[in-house]
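> example.struct
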């Protein structure tokens, strides 16, 4: 969701500042513990469909649009940001696969 919002901001505003958030605290809030994972998977599917649509319709010039990433203290273009999110997604998948592999051996 944050990637989608950041892209939309950078495409519609001039070098907007991206607000950071405390992911660790977000991950321990009540909704994470109470709401079934299926709702998150549906949300993720919908956001990815929308983000994919935005990315596939972007022009070369739009990939040079920037946003100010306050945690990094510099402006980043959407070409770099696309690569960063691509890596980030693969990184999360590797964590999930590792946890599943560990969990199979652990729980059996």
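> example.seq
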């Amino acid at each position: 969701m944050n990637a989608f919002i950041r892209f939309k901001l950078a495409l519609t505003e001039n070098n907007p500042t991206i607000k950071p958030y405390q992911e660790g605290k977000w991950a321990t809030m009540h909704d994470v513990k109470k709401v079934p994972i299926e709702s998150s998977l549906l949300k993720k599917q919908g956001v990815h469909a929308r983000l994919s649509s935005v990315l596939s319709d972007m022009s070369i010039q739009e990939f040079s649009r920037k946003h100010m990433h306050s945690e990094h203290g510099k402006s980043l273009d959407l070409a770099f940001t696309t690569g960063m999110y691509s890596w980030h997604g693969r990184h999360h998948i590797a964590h999930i696969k590792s946890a599943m592999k560990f969990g199979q051996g652990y729980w059996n």
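> remarks
The domain at 2-78 is CATH 1.20.120.450 (Four Helix Bundle (Hemerythrin (Met), subunit A)).
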